[in-house]
Amino acid sequence: MIPRELRLPPEHIYPADEWRLVETAFTKNWMGNAETIFSLSNGFLGIRGIFEEGRPAIESGTFLNGFHETWPIVHAEEAYGFARTGQTIVNAPDGTLMKLYVDDEPLYLPTARLTDYERSLDLRDGVLRRDLNWSTPGGKQVRLRSARMVSFEHRHLAAISYEVTVDLDAPIVVSSQLLNRQDSRALDEPGNGNGGPHDPRRAKGFTGRVLNAREHVEEGHRLITGYRTTHSRMSLGVGIDHVIETENPWYASTSCSEDLSKVVFTIDARAGVPIRITKYMTYHTSRSVPSIELVDRATRTLDRGVRVGYDALESSQRAYLDDVWERADVQVDGPPRVQQAIRWNLFQLVQASARAETTGIPAKGLTGQAYEGHYFWDTEVYVAPFLTYTEPRITRNLLRFRHSMLDKARERAEELSEAGALFPWRTINGEEASSYYAAGTAQYHIDADIAFAIKRYVEVRGDHELLCEVGGEILVETARLWAGLGFFGPKGDTFHIHGVTGPDEYTTVVNDNAFTNLMARCNLQYAAEVVLWMREEQPDAYRSLAHATDLQDDEVALWQRAAEAMHIPYDADRGIHPQDANFLEGGLGLRVHPERPLPPAAELPPPRDLPPPGHQAGGRRPRDGVPGGPVLAGAEASQLRLLRPLDDGGLVAVRLRPVHPGGGDRLRAQGLGVLPVRAAHGPGRRGRQRRGRGPHRLDRRGLDGSRVRLRWGA
Q1: What is the pLDDT of residues 652-676, one digit of tens each?
Q2: Beta strands in 247-306 (DSSP E)
Q3: Distance of alpha carbon 57 from alpha carbon 54, whole angstroms
Q4: Can you tell me the distance from the alpha carbon of 320 to that of 343, in angstroms, rounded to the nearest whole number?
Q5: Apex CA 204: angle with CA 375 and CA 76, to 5°?
Q6: Are the beta carbons of 478 and 420 closer than 8 angstroms?
Q7: d(CA 555, CA 459)
Q8: pLDDT in tens, 169-206
Q9: Is 322 helix (H, G, I), strand (E, B) or coil?
Q10: Considering only CA atoms, which of 307, 188, 190 is closest in space to residue 241?
Q11: How far apart are the first and last CA of the chain?
C-alpha cells in the first residue's frame, strides 16, 4: 500500500455540519479533495466537483458507468491465461462549463477578489450550490449563485441553474460549453497538474484518439453530438440545452465542432436585474446501437428536462432522498463532524448505486478514473449488503448484471483449464482486465463473494424467485469451480485449495488462504442447499437449471463432501486462524523506503528449510496451460531471500542489502551460494519447464511502492 499522510481539512474552511459539506473560502490547497467530496452522481452519470468556470482544476471528469475504451495489455513475459485486453472508463464530454465575463474580464477564482464565498453540498437534496460575490477590477459587485444536480429520478439528466446579478450596468458574457476532455482541453485551461509519484491506481492515459464524432445537431440553444469509441466501438450521445430568463437585452450565438461546442449568451446587464440561465445536460451510451439513435434519445431527454423545469427537478431530488434517509440514516451521539462523515459515506453509497441498473458499481464510484472504472468484489461484499437492507431493487439488478457475465466467466474458466465459471477479478465488460495474474486472476474468491451476495440477499428479502431466475445458475457454476480447483488430502478427510491469492494482494499465490477457504465452503454448502430445494420445491425451475448447466446428480454430493472437509488453517499454540497455510512461517516483509532502510544482515532471520525438489512457489499444482508460481518462493521471499533457478537445476540464494550504509531504496543482491535443488519455476505454456537464462532482471515493488531492481547472471 502506498503510504499517505492523513490530512484533516481546516474547520474554519470546512466547518462541521450534520447535513451539509460546506466550503467557506476558495483555497487551492484543498482543491483535489474538494473535487472529490463535492462530486455528484446517480450511479449512471457522475460529475466531479469542479467549478463551472472549468479552471482551476486538479482533475476534471464526467463519467458514465460502463462506458469504456479497450487497449492491448503488454506483458513483460507472455504466458497462457494472462489477460490480453484492458478496459478503462472514458472521460466523457464535460457539459458543466459556464464561463463568466464581466466587462470582458473573466471570473478566475485564484486571482478574483471574493468578498463573500460559500460552496455546499446538501445531503438532503443532493444539490451542489455556490454563492459568491466578486468585486471586479473595475469596482463592480457581481453576485453569482449556481446550483448543480445529477437527477436520481431521470437517469440520463443533469442540470445547472446559473444566476448573475450586477450592482452597476455592465456587459456580461456567459459561454456555455460542451468540451471533449478525453481527447482535448480548452486552450485557455492549464494542465490538470497530475504530476508527482506514480500511483498504480490511476487510470491509463490513451495515446490515440478515443471519441470520434459521428453526428451533430444544432437547434436553437441546443447542441447534441454523437460519438463512437475507437476500439471498444461503444456509442455515445451527449447534448446540452438552455433556457434563459432575464429582463435584460440579450442575444445568443452557437458553434459546434468535434471537441468543443458553445452557446454564447451576450447580455447588456442593468443594475439589480438578474440573469438566470438553466442548462440541461444529457448522456446516453450503448454497446450495440448506433450513435444516431442515441442522439434521438438525447433529444427526448432534453425535451423532458426543459418541460419539467429546474425547480421541479430539485423537488423530485429532495423527495427521492427523503425516502432514502427514512430507510438508511444512521444517527450517532457525538461531535457533528462524526455525524457529517457517516452521512456523507451513506450518501456516496446512494450516489454510486441508485441508477446503476444495467452495470456494476466501480470501485471509486463515479468520482474519477481511478482503478480504470473497474468492478471488483467490493460490490458484492461491501455494497450489496447495505443495498439488500435499504434498496433491494438495486441488489437484484446487480446480481442480474453478474449473471449477464456468466458466459464470459465460463469461457475464462475453460481458458484456465478449470471447471464451472471464473468471474473476472476486475472488469467492465465481463472480460478479465487484471494485467497481473498473481494479484488479479488468482483471487478466485470473487466467485464465492458473488455467491455470498446471493445468499445474503435471499435470506434477508426471501426472494426465491431470483434463485430460480439467475441465482441458481451462478451458484452451480461457482461451486463447480471450487470442486475442480481444490483437492482432497491423502486420507480424504480434508479439502485444500492451493495457489490462490486472498484479499491481501501483497501476499500472492498461497495455499489454503483462510478467507478463500471459508468463502468457498459457504459457496459449496449454499449451492448444494439451493439445488436440493429447487429439486423438491421448484421442479420446473430445477429442470431448466439442470438443462442449462448439464447438472449431474453426483455433483451435489461432491460439493457437500468438499464443504464438510474444507481445511481452515489454525494455529493451536496461538489460538488463531492464520491468513494462509504458511503465513506464520515468514520473517521480515519486503519493505524498502528511503526513511526506513533495511536492517543489518545480522538482524535478519535465519534461512528456513529449502523447498523440496519440484516445489513451485505458491503451491499451484502443475497443470497444462496454467501459469506457474513466481520465482519468489513462499516464505523465502518474506525473509529477503530470492531463489534463482540455474540451467543445471540448482538455485542461487540471494540476500538483499542496501547499496550504501545509509540505507535508502537502492538494493544490492549478494549471492549466498548454489543449492542443489531443482528449479522453482512453474510450467510455461503447454507445461514446458522454463529454465533461467542470463542476464536476468527482476523489477519488483515493495509494499510501500518503492521499486526493487535485481540483476544477476552473465
Answers
A1: 333 333 333 333 333 333 333 333 3
A2: 250-255, 260-269, 275-286
A3: 7
A4: 16
A5: 100
A6: yes
A7: 24
A8: 999 999 999 999 999 865 555 444 444 444 555 566 78
A9: helix
A10: 307
A11: 34
**Sign, Cα dihedral of 505, 422, 515, 393:** positive
The grid coordinates of residue 692 equal 533461467
Q: Is the pLDDT of residue 328 over 90?
A: yes
Give the count of beta carbons closer than 10 Å to the beta carbon of residue 303: 14
Please, are residues 47 and 40 in contact by the beta-carbon 8 Å criterion?
yes
pLDDT band at 553 (very low <50, low <70, confident <90, very high): confident
C-alpha atoms less than 13 angstroms from C-alpha of 230 in its C-beta half-sphere? 14
Give the whole-angstrom CA distance, residue 681 versus residue 615. Answer: 9
Torsion-angle region of 272 (φ positive above 0: left; ψ -120 to 50: alpha; else: beta): left
Beta bridge partners of residue 250, listed in sequence order? 267
Show the 3-state SS of 141-160: EEEEEEEEEECCCCCCEEEE
For 140, the grid coordinates are 463592480
- CB distance 238 to 215 below 8 Å: no
Long-range pairs for 609-617: beta carbons < 8 A, 24 or more residues apart: 610/636, 610/643, 610/651, 610/675, 610/677, 611/636, 611/677, 611/680, 612/677, 613/677, 613/678, 614/678, 615/677, 615/678, 615/680, 616/680, 616/681, 616/682, 617/509, 617/680, 617/682
Q: What cell numbers appear for 155 in the block?
A: 437517469
Alpha carbon separation from 665 to 588, 660, 706 (Å, rounded): 16, 10, 7
> Is pLDDT of 637 > 70?
no
Pick from 213, 240, 239: nearest CA to 227: 213
| Band of pLDDT at residue 1, cut at 50, 70 and 90 | low
80 burial type by CB count under 10 A (0-12 exposed, 13-18 middle, 19+ buried): middle
Nearest residue to 371 (alpha-carbon basis) of 158, 533, 202: 202
DSSP class per residue in 65-100 = EEEEEEEE---SS--TT---EEEEEEEPPB---EEE
The C-alpha cell that represents 495 in the structure block: 479439502
C-alpha cell read off for 132? 459568491
Pair 405, 424: CB distance under 8 Å: yes
Q: How distant, in Å, are the alpha carbons of 631, 643, 654, 712, 713 from that of 669?
A: 15, 11, 6, 8, 11
pTM for the whole structure: 0.81
> CA geometry: angle at 359 spanning 357 and 361, to 5°?
100
Which residues, at least 6 apart from 492, have a Cβ–Cβ distance to it below 8 Å?
565
Q: How many residues does the chain have?
A: 714
To the query of whether residue 477 is one of the catalytic residues in this protein, the response is no
Neighbouring residues of 262: CB distance < 8 A, sequence distance ≥ 6: 175, 176, 177, 178, 223, 254, 255, 256
Task: Identify which has the larger pLDDT, 474 or 661.
Answer: 474
pLDDT tens for 220-234 read 999 999 999 999 999
The owner of cell 442540470 is 159
Beta-strand relationship, 40-41 and 45-47: antiparallel
C-alpha cell at 486: 481444490
- 573 has a pLDDT exceeding 50: yes
Contacts of 17 (CB under 8 A, 6+ apart): 336, 340
Among 189, 215, 505, 585, the active-site one is 505
Q: Residue 375: what are its φ and ψ, rounded to 5°?
A: -95, 130
Q: Where are the beta strands (DSSP E) in 439-544?
A: 487-488, 495-496
φ and ψ of 103, to 5 deg: 55, 35
